[in-house]
Predict the 3D structure of the following.
Amino acid sequence: AIKSVAKKQITNLKSSGDEYELYDKDVMSALRIIGDNSVVQLLNKYLTVSQLDTKMTAILQLLRLGKSVPAMEIRKLAVDRNYLTEFYDSLRLLNKTALLPKEFQTQIKFAESYLASYIYDEEEGAEDVIFKLLGEKLTDENGVRARYYIFKLIFKYEDGEEAYPAICGPFDINKLNPSAIGGVKSRVFYNEPLPLKSVDELFKKFLK
């Protein structure tokens, strides 16, 4: 029965554009428990849908079954700021972070991803958001040296664009560790004019 539900979900997902199927994660979890060859085929069919949340679940379930996943499907999640860090964290739990292309395993890419999650609601009406790195700020976090990234976010709308400064961190002083340390802190300064008069003053506001 669960396989029939999965087939119906896949058909619906392919015909519904951006719409998601309710309980698709539960269905894929149930399929993994069965784990036979027909299940692997179904999970691979889930990979062919456009919905990235569904695609990510299918990838993780296949990896849990010890199956390989096409590199291009992994890359589709890596290039999307809204999924990069969540996907990385899920891969880390499976000891599979090596599958994520190295070009996306950088602190700057992760900072962009964390900020993308932070601005999700504000981004709703924007056609696109461009991230421009303005600089870095080093500080001490409970006696540990840490790094923050300062960005200019450009929200592009149908009738123009708006730009704001943003900060994200803290990150390890060692840039080879892409994840934030000690909990992510992100903030967009919607009332702060650009260009910035002082990065230090902005950072003081960030820490308040």
About this structure: The mean pLDDT is 93. Strands lie at 128-141, 144-157, 160-172, 180-188. The CA atoms of residues 123 and 129 lie 7 Å apart. The chain is about 40% helix and 25% strand.
